[in-house]
Amino acid sequence: MKKKLVSTDFSGQMIMLGTGTSVGVPAIGCGCDVCQSSNPKNNRTRCSVILGLPEGNLLIDTPPDLREQLLRERIGLVHAVAYTHEHADHLYGLDDLRLFPFYVGHPIPIYSEPLVQQRIYSAFDYAFADRDDTHPGARPSLTMLQIGLEPFDVLGSSVTPIRLRHGPHFDVLGFRVGNVAYCTDTNEIPDESWPLLEGLDVLVIDALRYTPHATHFSVDQAIEVARKTGAKQTYLTHICHELDHDIDDAKLPPGINLAYDGMRIPLT
Fold first, then answer.
1. pTM of the prediction?
2. Which of 42, 107, 141, 255 has the most CB atoms around its CB within 10 Å?
3. Dihedral sign from CA coordinates of 253, 259, 265, 268
């Protein structure tokens, strides 16, 4: 029997699939007020977004929660994937891409830097093994495409990579589409990247917690970044369990808010 595809049309929008830190919120075994909260906006899965572009859906990162996120938002199609970096909370849901080649009729294009490619080839070696498949869909069907810092075209849009630093050991990418920029997992924006953040309608920026961290912006640091860019609206993501959505969102300056899982942001 032919499968009936069920998928939400969110053309012209970016959906925040996940807004949580690497362990998610609630954190396993934690009894704090936020982890025990009944407020759905305090339930934060691992960070990812998906963009409804003119020719399809571009997923940014494949976190371990990807299947749950796509089912929650009733998204049945992913046409391409771009990666910010290779850490487990952004990569290790890649196997959930297996179904999409059935729907689109070809391997899923994967846009990533060389280090991310190396991690994919290592962690998901079975997807590239030189052997016959036992059955259709036995492994992800992918087309690996290398990107750097030059803009690249995907699904009818131009995507601009933005170099970011993620602590002392990791370079990562943010992405800009039109006047919306997504910059998770960072605590430093190099001088050469600031011009790429000018004229934004929306900035999504890492803000782990109030206290400083070795690899993530704090809330106050993220506010300073937002002010420096002059973005009309800023949303904070990669949020840990130290922030209660309603309480801490109310403390933020005008034009700056906490993101939450399922939030929809217009692409401009």
1. 0.96
2. 42
3. positive
Phi, psi at 240, each rounded to 5°: -90, -175
Q: How many CA atoms within 13 Å lie on the side-chain side of 240? A: 17
Q: For 52-71, what is the HEC assignment?
A: EECCEEEEECCCCCHHHHHH
Joined together, the tokens standing for residue 187 give 């605590």
The residue behind tokens 């009309």 is 232
pLDDT in tens, 40-90: 999 999 999 999 999 999 999 999 999 999 999 999 999 999 999 999 999
Measured CA to CA, the distance from residue 14 to residue 180 in angstroms comes to 9
Q: Is the Cα torsion angle 64, 166, 168, 94 positive or negative in sign?
A: positive
Could you tell me the end-to-end alpha-carbon distance of the chain, in angstroms, rounded to an integer? 40
CB 80 within 8 A of CB 109: yes
Closest by CA to 45, choosing from 193, 256, 239, is 239
Could you give the CA distance from residue 14 to residue 17 in angstroms, rounded to a whole number?
Answer: 9
